[in-house]
Design goal:
The chain is an alpha/beta fold. It has helices at 5-10, 12-15, 21-30, 42-52, 85-96, 114-118, 131-144, 172-175, 188-191, 197-214, 260-263, 282-289, 304-309, 344-355, 367-374, and strands at 32-36, 56-60, 101-105, 123-126, 148-154, 157-163, 223-228, 233-238, 279-280, 297-300, 316-317, 336-339, 361-364. It is 33% helix and 16% strand. The strands form two sheets. Strands 3-2-1-4-5-6-7-8 form an eight-stranded mixed β-sheet, with helices on both faces. The chain starts with a helix and ends in an 8-residue tail after the last helix. Bound molecules: zinc ion. Zinc ion is lined by residues 170-171, 173-174, 242, 245, 247-248.
Length: 382
């Protein structure tokens, strides 16, 4: 391939960089990268890879742009709210660099489609926000011998590495053989994330991708980079391929993709599942509140910051994390309707209180989000 005069001008700061130069820029323009997720990490990754001239950028995402994304997902703007993230991403990339071929995969990466989606690309970059997809992307990349440029973020902290057993490094399973028990690690939606953090971690991933394409420098292969934004500190852990790894070890037992939802023990969103026997709907809650004879108490088990944002009138705040210490403030004979944001934590609180001898307990399905959707739209959603 040759660069035309527009491209020579566009990439001139690369061309004058000896480590890139004309040959390096041609490699970048010929490369294909699949970005899994067009969210917090995917935004800076896709933006800068497009600016750098990566020839083909694949984007996998099934989600639509939400207002709560805009604090960090800079591929998307306010007018994009409600649009599919893939389309919004494509528009942003093409505005920046029309030379980039954008391939949209407007679907959820799953065991059934992962190998076919990933196969045509040189490099995969992990911008996922959940464990099933992360293990799936890892396993598919190892099976297809593709470098998997990893990053993850939470609150003020992030980490990044390059997983590529075929290049002599470990895979994600060597580092984390088992997923955490479901519900133990809160998602960014539950725990929050500093808006600039995915920018920092995503650009570390984008840097590693360009180095892999160019074959220059020392990559994060065999290293895990840890970043803390509050302390503004980088730390590094040495990694090694685990010979016992069930995927990339000497005697692998995983030779094809598995059921990752089952592996991670993830339950689908409570609002999509049939009712749990201890659950009531927000309409049941309204009826109970309108019947003073029942004498119910609404117990909010979210964190104080969440309570500040939105609350159900009269609800009593006892965060799930403080429930064991504050147990004596509660009355085992009282009827409690427990709610959280979406219905997950309230079920855990119910389980815990029942083990402590409480008997008259209900968990509000869909939490305050369902309350806002179905009962009181003046309660803000977050
Ligand atoms: Zn491994």
């Amino acid at each position: 391939m040759e660069l035309n005069s527009d491209e020579i001008r566009r990439y001139s700061r690369h061309l004058t960089l000896p480590e890139v130069g004309l040959e390096g820029q041609k490699k970048i323009c010929s490369a294909s990268v699949l970005c899994i997720g067009a969210g917090g990490l995917g935004s800076p990754i896709a933006t800068y890879l497009a600016a750098a001239g990566v020839g083909t950028l694949g984007i996998v995402d099934f989600d639509a742009v939400d207002f709560s994304n805009l604090q960090r997902q800079i591929l998307h703007g306010t007018p994009d709210v409600g649009r599919p993230k893939t389309q919004s991403a494509r528009d942003a990339i093409q505005r920046l660099n029309p030379n980039v071929e954008v391939v949209l995969h407007d679907t959820r990466l799953a065991s059934e489609n992962a190998l076919d989606i990933i196969r045509p690309y040189d490099i995969v970059v992990d911008g996922t926000d959940n464990f099933p997809t992360r293990y799936l992307a890892n396993d598919a990349c190892v099976l297809l011998r593709k470098p998997n440029v990893y990053g993850s973020i939470f609150r003020f902290e992030g980490q990044a590495s390059v997983f590529a057993p075929h290049l002599g490094g470990p895979c994600y399973r060597c580092l984390y053989p088992e997923p955490p028990p479901p519900g133990v690690v809160p998602s960014c939606a539950e725990g929050g994330v500093l808006g600039v953090l995915p920018g920092i971690i995503g650009l570390i991933q984008a840097t590693e991708i360009l180095k892999l394409i160019l074959g220059k420098g020392a990559s994060l292969l065999n290293r895990l980079l840890l970043f803390n934004a509050l302390d503004m500190q980088f730390r590094e852990l040495k990694l090694r391929r685990d010979p016992q790894c069930p995927l990339c070890g000497n005697n692998p037992t995983i030779t094809q993709l598995i059921d990752y939802q089952a592996f991670c023990g993830s339950t689908p969103q409570p609002t999509n599942t049939p009712m749990h026997p201890d659950e009531v709907t927000v309409h049941d809650l309204t009826q109970a509140l309108n019947n003073p004879q029942l004498g119910i108490q609404v117990l909010d088990v979210r964190e104080p910051d969440e309570y500040q944002i939105a609350r159900i009138n009269g609800a009593r705040l006892v965060p799930l994390s403080t429930l064991p210490q504050r147990l004596k403030e509660l009355d085992p004979k009282q009827a409690y309707y427990i709610h959280c944001k979406a219905g997950g934590r309230s079920l855990k609180a119910l389980q815990f209180l029942r083990e402590q001898g409480f008997q008259n307990l209900r968990s509000v399905k869909g939490g305050i989000t369902a309350w806002s959707d179905e009962i009181d739209p003046t309660v803000p959603k977050y």
